[in-house]
Design goal:
Low-confidence stretches: none
Largest sheet: 5 strands, antiparallel
């Protein structure tokens, strides 16, 4: 493992697929996996095919949702780090992460970015439907 010692109940950041989250460490399965209970979203997952990043012409352009509040994910242990800040409220963190990604993609004129924007705007409607 790394220089820091992790234990169940610790607050951590963890990458899962192409998103990044704040969560509570539930279980460790060294040397490769940590189970994390999701509490907040730091980076919304990237849209499209993970095997062909930034490619628009793929057989299936995936819509990637952020993990839900309380959902448990098996994250690569190498991506798990201690978190010592205040945990943001889940819905507010999701909104911020989504808006940051949409803002970055608006500046990109590639076909991949435009297809991603369509997916993210659909997710935005689903996430925040009243």
């Amino acid at each position: 493992m790394s220089e820091f010692q992790l234990k169940s109940g610790d607050l951590v950041t963890a990458a899962y697929k192409s998103g990044e989250y704040v969560g509570e460490l539930v279980e460790l399965y060294p040397p490769r996996v940590a189970v994390v209970k999701i509490l907040a979203v730091l980076v919304h997952p990237t849209q499209g095919d993970l095997h062909h990043p930034f490619a628009a012409n793929v057989p299936l352009f995936h819509q990637r949702r952020a993990l839900s509040y309380g959902e448990k994910a098996s994250a690569p242990l190498a991506s798990v780090r201690p978190y010592d800040g205040e945990v943001p409220e889940y819905k507010a963190s999701l909104k911020k992460a989504l808006e940051e990604q949409i803002s970055k993609l608006r500046e990109d004129t590639s076909e991949w970015a435009q297809r991603s924007l369509v997916q993210l705007k659909e997710l935005q409607k689903e996430y925040f439907a009243e």
